[in-house]
Design goal:
Blueprint: E1 6-10, H1 19-34, E2 38-41, H2 47-58, E3 62-68, H3 72-75, E4 83-87, H4 90-99, E5 103-106, H5 111-125, E6 133-136, H6 143-154, H7 160-163, E7 166-169, H8 172-184
Parallel strand pairs: 1-2, 1-5, 2-3, 3-4, 5-6, 6-7
Helix pairs in contact: 1-2
Length: 185
């Protein structure tokens, strides 16, 4: 029997300017759902969040949304989610998402996406948990971010071991396989 896991998806509440962003979100959701994995996400129906969650559901996967009460009217969660957890704050949202997830994937997004994913990287670095993180790099969206991380290593602000806690990949199957294998090693 194949192992199934929970993947937390951090991504934009907007679709972005390139149609490939929406397409990759759909394909990721479909891939995870059709392979029996659970998708944990920010709970909203807007943008890439809505695309990845609904694709996972259509593919037969479980989807857990975690949304702060203050964002319910803005991000409009759908009633078809497997589970919807309402929190009192963004901090509690991030904590719950981490509790329910084995792995983390960042799709394109803005400051909220970066806040969420960097908190997870920091928690891994500090040893608070061991949950691998990857960026699904659509059209080199995260190329400059990874250049920054490499520069921070060169300038002595990030240790190489910390930098190696995260990677980027444009291929969904390869990214998921690499995340799962990193947990087993």
């Amino acid at each position: 029997m194949k192992e199934v896991f929970s993947f937390c998806i951090f991504c934009g509440s907007a679709n972005g300017a390139e149609p490939e962003f929406v397409e990759k979100a759909r394909v990721l959701g479909e891939y995870l759902g059709s392979n029996g994995h659970t998708v944990v996400f920010g709970g909203g129906n807007n943008g890439l969040m809505g695309e990845v969650s609904q694709a996972a559901l259509r593919a037969g996967g479980k989807v857990i949304g975690v949304i702060p009460r203050a964002l319910i009217d803005i991000e409009r969660p759908l009633s078809n989610l497997t589970d919807l957890i309402v929190t009192d704050s963004i901090s509690e949202r991030k904590q719950k998402m981490s509790e329910f997830s084995d792995f983390f994937i960042a799709l394109p997004g803005g400051v909220g996406t970066l806040d969420e994913v960097f908190e997870v990287i920091t928690n891994n670095w500090l040893g608070l948990f061991d949950k691998p993180v990857a960026f699904l790099d659509v059209n080199d969206y995260y190329r400059e971010l990874f250049q920054f991380l490499d520069t921070a290593v060169e300038k002595g602000f990030i240790r190489p071991k910390c930098r190696n806690l995260v990677f980027r990949c444009g291929d969904i199957a390869l990214l998921v396989e690499r995340l799962i294998s990193s947990k087993k090693s």
